[in-house]
Amino acid sequence: MPAPRSMLTLEGRIAIITAAASGIGRASAEAFAAYGAHVIVVDIDGPRTAEVVEAIHAGGGSAEGHVVDLLDQDAVDGLFSALASAHDRVDVLFNHAGAPGPKGFELTHEQWLRCVRLNLWAPTAMTQGALPLLRRSDRSPSIIYTASTAAVIASPNSPTDSASKAGVLMFAKSVAVALAPEGIRANVLMPGLVETPMLPTFFSARSEEDPEYLEALARYQGMVPMGRLGRPPELAAVAAFLASDAAPYMTGAAITVDGGLSAF
């Protein structure tokens, strides 16, 4: 059996990461590339996608970028048509894209649908599109889904976030059970609050200097046993582990990375 250190590698793997142009997604793209993967950077932001690909190349890694609106099914279909032409397989799909919904219960039907489409339908569509390529992999193919601790802890700030992320959690577990006989693994990354550009959005803040936001943030950090927010590379390291040969018997697992908040 290989030494544990040699198992924590993504050498030669082809990995798709959505929302890979910033925050946890970008940190994961850079980490996967550092571990030896060819990273397919997928994001709606063209300039930032190009920036991430460039940064990976500058660090000696391998990557390509695709600008895709995951709410546009034709765009998702086009992505997988292009990937099927360029690659004989995919080894890892990291469904990271998602966003908190509007605060409270005063939301419109359109706001609800957008949140559910991005948080739940987008990873479903990506899973459907990637499956033919994942089935061609002989490298313990892996699907990773980002949910959040809001999937298991009620979120008064965003009930739509809790509802849709709980859906992601159970969808991923269903995928894990369904695909285990084929050797395809599926696991869930469950972050608490993390220092990313999206953080103010979670609190519906007007800006990063919003006094109400800063007060809520300080209150939240005071509840976390480790006394701080998470950092993107800390989540990226867990995602890389789940994608690697170091986790060959892990499927259907939900890994919480929240500084101990959910331990209460």
Defining traits:
alpha/beta, Rossmann fold, 7 strands, 14% strand, globular
What report would you give on this structure?
- The chain is of the alpha/beta class and 264 residues long.
- The chain has a single domain, classed as Rossmann fold (3-Layer(aba) Sandwich).
- Helix content is 45%, strand content 14%.
- The protein is built from 9 helices and 7 strands, in the order H-E-H-E-H-E-H-E-H-E-H-E-H-H-H-E.
- It has helices at 4-7, 23-34, 46-58, 73-86, 109-134, 159-179, 199-202, 211-223, 232-243; strands spanning 14-18, 38-43, 62-67, 92-95, 142-146, 185-191, 254-257.
- Strands 3-2-1-4-5-6-7 form a 7-stranded parallel sheet, with helices on both faces.
- Helix 2 crosses helix 9 (232-243) and helix 4 (73-86) runs parallel beside helix 5.
- The chain is globular.
- It starts with a helix and ends in a 7-residue tail after the last strand.
- The mean pLDDT is 94.
- Keywords: Oxidoreductase.
- It comes from Baekduia soli.
- One of its GO terms (molecular function) is oxidoreductase activity.
